[in-house]
Amino acid sequence: xxxxxxxxxxxxxxxVNPTTWxxxxxxxxxxxxxxxxxxxxxxxxxxxVMNQPLGERWVRVYLIATQxxxxxRVPVFTGLTSEPSRKIKGNIITYNMSCYSVxxxxxxxxxxxxYYAQAGSEGAAAAAALLKECGLRVTYTPGGAYLPxxxxxxxxxxxxxxxxxxxxxxxxRVKIDxxxxxxxxxYDSKVVAEFDTSTDMLEPEVTDEQxxxxxxxxxxxxxxxxxxxxxxxxxxxxxxxxxxxxEIWKAESVNSVADLGQYALARLKELQSxxxxxxxxxxxxxxxxxxxxxxxxxPAQGINGVFRVASQSIDLEYGARTKEVAYEA
Length: 329
Hints:
Layout: E1 8-16, E2 23-28, E3 31-37, E4 44-50, E5 58-67, E6 70-81, E7 85-89, E8 92-101, H1 104-108, E9 116-117, H2 123-133, E10 138-140, E11 151-152, H3 159-170, E12 172-176, E13 182-186, E14 191-196, E15 207-210, E16 218-223, E17 226-231, H4 241-244, E18 249-253, H5 260-272, E19 276-282, E20 293-298, E21 303-315, E22 322-328
Parallel strand pairs: 10-13, 14-20, 16-18
Antiparallel strand pairs: 1-2, 1-5, 3-4, 3-21, 4-8, 5-6, 6-8, 7-8, 9-11, 12-13, 15-19, 16-17, 19-22, 20-21, 21-22
Helix pairs in contact: 2-3
């Protein structure tokens, strides 16, 4: 399937066996959307409209893409439905369902009293073990960062909030694919797709924003009794101290990180990333997920660089139009 070219799209919903995670019964979808955001607790959600209710079920949504007589079935969401609302319009009745990601069981379950992730332990392995206790299929990158100090569960701590604290301490990410498989891994700077004039993936209307006012070039991070201060003194960086002629400070504190200096450098870059953001709609590409890096090259419009996708919304309609917000990486 050449995703840079047009294709016709239809959608189906399959109920899913939560033990085997295999598809079971098929249902048609009238319309809907799949929304993902790296800052959202559950990371991904879906809204679907159907002509019959399902109740609370595990489901999987597929895009059926057809091109030149060939077809490909792509999973775009797996999760848990909620009890639908019923909409009546004359003799037509439809059912609107909000669907939660596979992380929902981890958000609903509290960790045992006294639970903690041990200092010196492999953080990704600890986070994966927590999610597996909630019945999820989880992989992680082994041999990664280790926790420099224990992370102790707080009052009301859920499995998901504990996982988030561990993963944030590592500076890593939780990633969910269309089949509901979870991966705990570092952020990757590898470009997974290129959008340029040769493929013409983007629609003509793009919002290109630059907000330098709130972006710091000095960051102080405190962890317990230790602190580290990092500065952007790169003359090639438009936000740096020499380029702006002044220091713009920000201070933060964290509970636990594997390497405070490395975290501070990465965090300063993250705080500077909103300096430029693109808001655009493009053709569907199954290889791009929030958190991934893409190259966007439209020189005539003054856009030529590498951007990290922060949020994504896929319309379950004709062509699977995909709306994204991406920050300069």
